[in-house]
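F.,

This is the one I mentioned.
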């Protein structure tokens, strides 16, 4: 019969001793209909009467039509079977069918009425809840799992765990309630936890599956840094706060002011967002992290240069020019140049030019110095997205000291000088000689000087913009007792010094030249941001 849910177990567990028919057990669910059979016979029967046997038998229904059933729920079916509609929990009990034919037979039937489980209560603590309802627990924490369910008869309650890539594993069965505790949560305990409640009679089952994630915050404080983005060479801020799960979120702001710059771990800044000394703050937030987030600050700055302004090399010898960059964040790219008006044509390493860089210190080693190729200005140029600076180094190439040669040179110079002086004295009047002598006091070699000076001046005209960039911190620091007389014509002094090999004087001359004549321009160049 359709809709009739009967689970009939003949000769089931509780066999009765001494009975002709083995005990029958029928199982029905509450609110449903059940049919109890009168013995194992089928076909037409004698007079069949059903009783309920608890403390004493109670009449239920009979095939004698003059006897009405005890309640409308009870009726007889084919072959004397008892049908009970809309089962109630109190229908659970022992029933007897009496059949009267030539002789009377008694058939006992046990009816088990089951119900549920209708619902399961699962409590997992202590955990947090994500916006989508998923639970998470902190790594290392203790988590209590409890599950209970009600049913008739009491259900079997079982916990199952299924972690990533493993099969479901039972954590044990109990009746009605089941609980266990995981003391130290770890990543491999992240998974789906299922509690099932099963009615042992009806096999009706309910399950609740809860996904439990195991989270942990990054172990240390975030670290901010500035660098170059690999593809665009723009400034890239990095907020390093690794080791947590799931990944934290980031917020970059400008400090002070708190203007939001972006919200990713790597933040690329456009050149317009950069200026000297600007600070950027990264606040990292993790679901298990500190409430207010963990933060770090990075300050960007353009490079400062320190280098010795002068170097000497002997012809055929080696010389190393060094340039130390300080305070550059992100680290600067350091290049060596001969001509600042052609910034692209940096000195390329070759057999004669060896460039080594250690951290923010770069050295240019020139092998086999030659006077005509190597003497002159060298520029160390340091650039990062915040700014660019250049410092100059003057390299003078000298013949190796040779006593015989020096003596010979001195003697021949003296002779030459004498010849010139006497020639002049002979050519001009004595009065003129006296005047010239006093004006040019201390500047013997005047002729040579003028000759070189004109070349130098031309070059300087061409390189005016370039030289403006030359002023570095280091040259300012050496600014001391400068001869006041060196003013507009500082470059002339420099040339003089070069010819005479008087390096100190040359340094001062250069110093004065830059500070007096081009000071303003230099400042502008120093403040200049990265050129696009
Ligand atoms: C039980 O029997 C009644 C009457 O035949 C029927 O209306 C009802 O749907 C049945 N209930 C179930 C759960 O089958
Ligand atoms: C049920 O009641 C009948 C009549 O009183 C009795 O003979 C029989 O032994 C009882 N059965 C049980 C199982 O109690
Ligand atoms: C049916 O029940 C009535 C009333 O109890 C009784 O008089 C009659 O004898 C019964 N019939 C049979 C066949 O037992
Ligand atoms: C039904 O009978 C069984 C034995 O056959 C007995 O254990 C059980 O207690 C009885 N149930 C009731 C409700 O009397
Ligand atoms: C029952 O009685 C009828 C006649 O009343 C008889 O024919 C039949 O054999 C009997 N059955 C048994 C099992 O005694
Ligand atoms: C879950 O269990 C915890 C303690 O084990 C208790 O504090 C909390 O109230 C329970 N929550 C529910 C919904 O029962
Ligand atoms: C809930 O969100 C977490 C984190 O985003 C995710 O891992 C999990 O699968 C989500 N759960 C569901 C049921 O969507
Ligand atoms: C589950 O059963 C075990 C024994 O099998 C018992 O020690 C434990 O206390 C039970 N737990 C619950 C929640 O019933
Ligand atoms: C938990 O079950 C859901 C749904 O089947 C699945 O997407 C998720 O990956 C499972 N989680 C784990 C940790 O196995
Ligand atoms: C520097 O480069 C410019 C442009 O090519 C050139 O005109 C100038 O002569 C160069 N100066 C030196 C000293 O090489
Ligand atoms: C050094 O350079 C000169 C010319 O500039 C060349 O003749 C000589 O061979 C070079 N010496 C070495 C060791 O390379």
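My design for it:
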């Amino acid at each position: 019969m359709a809709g009739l849910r009967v689970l009939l177990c003949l000769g089931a567990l509780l066999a009765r001793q001494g009975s002709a028919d083995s005990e029958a057990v029928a199982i029905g669910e509450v609110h449903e209909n059940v049919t109890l059979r009168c013995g194992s016979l089928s076909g037409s029967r004698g007079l069949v009467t059903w009783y309920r046997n608890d403390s004493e038998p109670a009449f239920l229904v009979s095939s004698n039509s003059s006897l009405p059933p005890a309640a409308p729920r009870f009726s007889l079916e084919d072959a004397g079977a008892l049908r009970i509609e809309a089962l109630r929990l109190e229908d659970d009990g022992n029933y007897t069918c009496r059949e009267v034919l030539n002789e009377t037979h008694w058939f006992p039937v046990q009816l088990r009425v089951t119900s549920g489980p209708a619902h399961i209560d699962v409590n997992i603590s202590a955990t947090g809840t994500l916006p989508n309802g998923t639970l998470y627990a902190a790594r290392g924490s203790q988590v209590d799992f409890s599950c209970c369910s009600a049913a008739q008869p009491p259900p079997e309650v079982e916990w199952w765990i299924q972690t990533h890539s493993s099969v479901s594993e039972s954590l044990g069965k109990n009746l009605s309630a089941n609980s266990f505790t995981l003391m130290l949560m770890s990543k491999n305990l992240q998974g789906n936890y299922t509690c099932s409640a099963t009615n042992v009679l009806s096999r009706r089952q309910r399950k609740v599956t809860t996904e439990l994630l195991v989270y942990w915050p990054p172990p240390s404080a975030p670290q901010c840094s500035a660098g170059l983005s690999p593809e665009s060479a723009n400034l890239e801020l990095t907020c390093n706060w690794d080791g947590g799960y799931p990944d934290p979120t980031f917020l970059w702001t400008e400090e002070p002011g708190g203007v939001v710059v972006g919200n990713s771990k790597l933040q690329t800044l456009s050149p317009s967002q950069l200026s000297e000394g600007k600070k950027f703050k990264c606040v990292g937030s993790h679901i298990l992290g500190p409430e207010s987030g963990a933060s770090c600050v990075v300050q960007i700055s353009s490079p400062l240069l320190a280098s010795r302004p002068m170097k000497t090399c002997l012809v055929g010898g080696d010389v190393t020019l060094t340039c130390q960059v300080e305070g550059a964040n992100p680290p600067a790219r350091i290049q060596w140049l001969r001509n600042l008006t052609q910034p692209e044509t940096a000195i390329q390493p070759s057999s004669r030019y060896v460039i080594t860089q250690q951290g923010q210190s770069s050295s240019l080693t020139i092998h086999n110095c030659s006077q005509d190729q190597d003497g002159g200005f060298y520029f160390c140029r340091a650039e990062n997205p915040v700014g660019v600076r250049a410092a100059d180094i003057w390299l003078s190439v000298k013949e190796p000291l040779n006593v015989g040669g020096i003596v010979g040179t001195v003697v021949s110079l003296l002779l030459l000088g004498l010849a010139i002086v006497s020639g002049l004295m002979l050519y001009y009047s004595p009065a003129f000689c006296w005047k010239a002598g006093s004006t040019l006091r201390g500047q013997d070699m005047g002729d040579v000087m003028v000759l070189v000076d004109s070349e130098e001046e031309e070059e300087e005209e061409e390189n005016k913009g370039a030289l403006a960039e030359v002023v570095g911190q280091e040259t300012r620091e050496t600014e001391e007792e400068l001869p006041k007389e060196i003013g507009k014509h500082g470059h002339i002094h420099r040339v003089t010094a070069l010819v005479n090999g008087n390096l100190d004087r040359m340094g001062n001359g250069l110093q004065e030249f830059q500070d007096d004549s081009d000071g303003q321009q230099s400042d502008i160049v120093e403040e200049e941001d990265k050129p696009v």
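Residues 174, 177-179 surround 2-acetamido-2-deoxy-beta-D-glucopyranose (ligand 8) (CB under 6 Å).

Talk soon.
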